[in-house]
């Protein structure tokens, strides 16, 4: 869903990430190879030792849109970080945060789940996927004025972003489902940037259509365009990961998840929409009315996943799809590169059900 241009924007706040496998109920530094999952809820430690929490974090996020920063900003504003022993967080908005996570200059990263798991396998450095951030995927082809049917796409130029990205792959799939033959009926071009840039390319006439997001509907309609094809599905598309922090200060990972998931519970309560958006504007994010109108969809509990969890069957299908798209190495078992104990601890601390359920991974 996201691949952004590198920005030099740095925000003062915190992010989350973690590491592999199952493990005992505390956050002992995981050994990726040989971990046994907690046998019961009693094995999950629901107390954070704040004396072991790293006070200042640096995290990487690949998308400049407020949706990818709000958990941290709300957690800081509400004092949730202070409750778990975290003082500050620097958010660095970087096109691809994984090299910095692998190299050690980032404590955590928020990035595409499949890319993170692939990097964990390829680098063999201890990178582990921890928790889902967005668990829904909107597959949308937005087009400019004058295109009203699949037949109108004949000979037109469209983009799903960079070639070989998930956006590119699912756009081709969406076209095929609607009777349009990619690279025959339409010309597909590779473009950089995020979906906001693709929207502007459609409006400016640089391309005739593009893979867009829910928040773009009203902006595009004001310009005479429309969503021609649209579908949504459950996909654990992105989330937090960590590397060295899991061995250097594993308690910090649980602390971060606890604070940000507490913030997410607040954010996904639709009664708090105005307060959250006011804070985002205060922090310098551009939230026009059209984007604000998408709040209920983008911050639904099953889209901006309220508990940070996922269904293993959904992850199985997602990774299998990505192996088919050649973005994840053949034979990759996501379980070997996922560490769920910090998530389970955070869920227990916050009174949330375990998801995935213990013993279901």
TrEMBL record:
Keyword line: Signal
Keyword Signal attributed: yes
Cellular location(s): Periplasm
Domain SsuA/THI5-like, chain residue ranges per copy: 69-270
Position of the signal peptide: 1-23
Pfam family of the protein (one): NMT1
Keyword Disulfide bond: no
GO cellular component: periplasmic space
InterPro entries: SsuA/THI5
PANTHER family referenced in this protein's UniProt entry, alphabetically: ALIPHATIC SULFONATES-BINDING PROTEIN-RELATED (PTHR30024), TAURINE-BINDING PERIPLASMIC PROTEIN (PTHR30024:SF47)
Family, as annotated: Belongs to the bacterial solute-binding protein SsuA/TauA family.
The protein's name in its UniProt record: SsuA/THI5-like domain-containing protein
Species per Swiss-Prot/TrEMBL record: Planotetraspora silvatica
